[in-house]
Amino acid sequence: MQVGTPPKAFAFEVSRTFNDTTLFAAAGSCKPVTSGKCIASKGGIFDLTTSSTFRSDNLLTSTAPFLEPTVNLSKFTWGRDILSGAPDLTLKDFPLAVSSDGSTPNFNLLSFGRNSTFFDALISQKRIPSRTWSLFYGLIGDSDDTQMDGNLVLGGFDSEKIGSDKALVQNVRPTYASAGCGSGMVVTLSDILMTVPNGGTVSILRGSLGTSKDVCLLPAYPVINLPGPVWDAFQANAGGDSLFVKAASGPYAISRSVGIFPGGMLGYAANASKSYTGNITFVFTPDVSITIPSHQFVRKDWFYDDDGHLYDYNSSFRVYRLSKLEQGSANDIPIFGQPFFTGAYLQVDEEKGNFRLSTNRLVSQENITAINSSSCAAVDITPSSTTSPAQPSPGRRPSYLTVPTVIGIVVCVVFTASVIAGTWFWRRRAARRVAQDKEEVSTAYGGKSELADDGIPRPPVELDTQDSWLPKAKIQELPAVIPGEREGRGGRSELPNYVRRDVEGLSELQAIRARVRP
């Protein structure tokens, strides 16, 4: 997307917690502000002094109290400018919150909260039929065969990316905001299964905690949090202490990355015959399973160089995008972030305050379908006990939706092409990287965090999402779209090759991705 005049491209993180679009300002957010590293790590830097259409609007501070209370609104410059995107989208006089000191979240935010100003603008222009959005994250591994484009659909969903007709549908829980889940998207985890080196499967949740666990879904979060006992069980079954890099100092036994995957546990690389290569399956109540292969959560330790290119900081290490909750975070609600959504498809209805979680389907085909509340009719879709689930894509377990969950769900049928055309579809390009192969071997990570504005690595466990406030929305009936059977399930698209990043301008292709990543 582009902001200002002349238009400048930006990459945005998707946030369900905030309602205002936030940008990093040229002053204070990064030093030096002209570095490609700063631009790449933030998704672009906005210099309001160079946009001829930007105008300050301090009244927005009092009319948009959407940021969490701990954020000092006086540290933002509030104003309006032109926000544009493809195809043929221009939002004039669009409200923006511009950071003056980098105290906002670590990336530019396109916010989809209950009172989102972005959705307000799209609805007023009749660009989308409803306040709904759906996220297919794609694959974000290190090699060509573990990469795949993702997409973001506003006003509907991509039915080809839903891996099963069975899914988990939940109300958003605003009360969880104070408990550390700013999105309010809470699901109950009943088990975690992992494959072990001998080819078997073990439970690391029931064996360690012995009970179910509520977890928070936050797509922008860089890692998957695991309670301490669960992480210990994972570590033991993955290969033991020798698999991970011991911290030279500090309160944590294992070193954490301070690269583009902050907080991830540091392990040894595959060339040392130690890296974990199995899968993790998260089982939710009622009986919905999401499987994440290791190539999506065991990654190279990517850093940005001064030109904004990505390089492997130390080829001897790998980052496990799993984070052990310990010390002061031991009792926090676990947050399931980006890696989890490589195996899940998320649909959110902001009008009704509900969300739908299912397995995803790894295919290049697209079928963008609008959700229009005026075209919806409540029907009884209680499944028959003899109904067979659709076949999942290879390597993924099917998901099931139990009878009590599906009763009363709304099925939306779009009758007109004009409504279908009203959906706004973004294709998140598979991430790009430039492998500089700069090996800066370090036994204890003393480098500075890629995402910290002051150059000081943030505490590895105390990952600050800044997403802890949710507007108090009225919970309504459960809406969801349950697509019918489709042909050709189980296929997999050809995965794209890496392409070089255009750091200086942040190309339009980058600007529409959910986040800049390797």
Automatic annotation (TrEMBL):
Keywords: Membrane, Transmembrane, Transmembrane helix. It holds the Pfam family Alpha_GJ. InterPro entries: Herpes_gJ, PEPTIDASE_A1, Peptidase_aspartic_dom_sf. Signal peptide: none annotated. Residues 437-458 are annotated as: Disordered. Residues 1-358 form the Peptidase A1 domain. Gene3D superfamilies: Acid Proteases. This is Peptidase A1 domain-containing protein. The lineage of its organism: Eukaryota, Fungi, Dikarya, Ascomycota, Pezizomycotina.
